[in-house]
Design goal:
This protein has 165 residues and is α+β, with helices and mostly antiparallel strands. It has one domain: Cyclophilin. It has two helices and eleven strands; from the N terminus they run βββαβββββαβββ. The chain has a nine-stranded antiparallel β-sheet, with helices on one face. The mean pLDDT is 96. It catalyses: [protein]-peptidylproline (omega=180) = [protein]-peptidylproline (omega=0). This is Peptidyl-prolyl cis-trans isomerase. Belongs to the cyclophilin-type PPIase family. It is an enzyme of class 5 (isomerase).
């Protein structure tokens, strides 16, 4: 993934989160993430991106919502990438976040209650965590009713698939 602040490489886990990885790769192959931004940056927590343009307009998604795969046993640890979603556990589409620390409270706890579902981890940063940490340090503010938005956009320029198994 190339951003205007540098590159980082993700390893994806299709054996643990097959649908999530399939949808992420589909969107990457079709150029969906190009010119989207990291629109929510909270140092010491996570950086979130993949769904908004520099003008803070939500991009029309190419894929339907994904069934939550957070029961895989993968944890929201530093450097892992997970799907963002609404209160509905099965609402993830294209937005993702990278954990800046171990965020165990985002892990699956129970399927009996929507609040216990957690967030699907589907990969991890294997190279360029220094770039992720650099993104985490950018100044942020409010943009309309959105908080923690970088004052200078952090743009995803492209997502290149290196290899598929």
């Amino acid at each position: 993934m190339t951003t205007n602040l540098g590159k980082f490489t993700l390893e994806l886990f299709p054996e643990k989160a097959p649908k999530t990885v399939e949808f992420f790769l589909y969107n990457a192959k079709h150029g969906f993430y190009e010119a989207t931004i990291f629109h929510r940056v909270i140092d010491g927590f996570m950086i979130q991106g993949g769904g908004f343009t520099k003008a803070m307009e939500e991009k029309k998604t190419l894929t339907p919502a994904i069934q939550n795969e957070s029961t895989s046993g993968l944890a929201n640890e530093r450097g892992t990438v997970a799907m963002a979603r609404t209160q509905d556990p099965h609402s993830a589409r294209v937005q993702f976040f990278i954990n800046l620390k171990d965020n165990s409270f985002l892990n699956h706890r129970t399927s009996a209650d929507p609040r216990g579902w957690g967030y699907t981890v589907f990969g991890k940063v294997v190279q360029g965590m220094d770039v992720v940490d650099k993104i985490a340090k950018v100044p942020t503010g409010n943009a309309g009713y959105y908080e923690n938005v970088p004052t200078t956009p952090v743009v995803i320029q492209n997502v290149k698939i290196i290899s598929e198994k």
